[in-house]
Design brief:
Elements (H helix, E strand, L loop, with lengths): L2 H23 L4 E6 L5 E10 L6 E5 L5 E5 L9 E5 L2 H6 L3 H28 L6 H16 L7 H13 L4 H27 L7 H22 L1 H6 L2 H6 L3
């Protein structure tokens, strides 16, 4: 048995172990959880949800067969509240397949788009990497973000893969491309939040002011950083040269 075969077998065992870990973390049983007035959990009853699990009033069948209606999230006279925890199969049974397919398609499109954006950054930095490899490394990063337990983020893993792919001469440029790609992703998310918050100015005026102030500041810094004329006007280059 060659070393490559052993490594591939170890990888398969690792993936199988991770999939098993995730499977046993999935809640399969429906539960009704009761909290007292202080927010402390007082009881958990396993059973089956009858009908939609995300309604304001949920019908629940307990193990003895009795069906009771529970108003979700609304405090009762003594201050207790009830929350519902739907099991995996209940969520699947109540799934809107059309909306799920549309959401999955949008998610896949966003991943492919971000992979192409990262590939473009690698190309600008003269790091040889195909679009297929950039998509593959992006999916590995997504896997580490969503499945693998621990504090290791997907960007770190993606950076390690592209560093090994780029070789010694392109390692720095490869890592920089990952960092810039992350900044662009955060900027896109901030811009999306800034647009959405415009529709809720009456409810979240402070949030709108904060988000748009940060975007304006970042945009101003970007203009200063990329404009040679402005840098000369404020003598920024001379100031940076005089720094120790």
């Amino acid at each position: 048995m060659t070393r490559k075969t052993v490594v591939n077998l170890l990888k398969l065992l690792l993936v199988a172990g991770l999939v098993t870990f995730v499977f046993f973390k999935i809640e399969l049983t429906d539960r009704i959880i009761t909290f007292d007035a202080t927010g402390k959990q007082t009881s958990v009853i396993e059973g089956a949800i009858v009908g939609p699990w995300d309604a304001s009033v949920v019908e629940f069948r307990s193990p003895d067969g009795a069906v009771t209606a529970h108003e979700i999230g609304v405090p009762s006279a003594d201050g207790t509240t009830v929350q519902v925890s739907a099991g995996f199969w209940t969520v699947v049974k109540n799934l809107d397949l059309l909306l799920f397919a549309a959401g999955a398609a949008c998610y896949l499109f966003s991943l492919v788009f971000s992979s192409i954006r990262w590939w473009w950054l690698l190309r600008v930095n003269r790091v040889e990497c195909s679009i297929v490899d950039s998509i593959r490394f992006t999916w590995i990063g997504v896997f580490f973000n969503n499945v693998v337990p621990g504090q290791t983020g997907g960007d770190v893993v993606k950076a390690l893969y592209i560093m090994r792919h780029a070789g010694d001469s392109g390692r720095v440029a490869a890592v920089v491309s990952v960092l810039v790609d992350r900044v662009l992703g955060l900027a896109s998310l901030a811009l999306l939040g800034a647009v959405v918050v415009l529709f809720f100015l009456d409810e979240f005026p402070e949030v709108a002011i904060g988000v748009w102030s940060v975007l304006a500041g970042v945009s101003l810094l970007g203009v200063v950083a990329f404009s040679k004329r402005i840098r000369r006007m404020i003598r920024l280059d001379a100031l940076l040269k005089n720094l120790p």
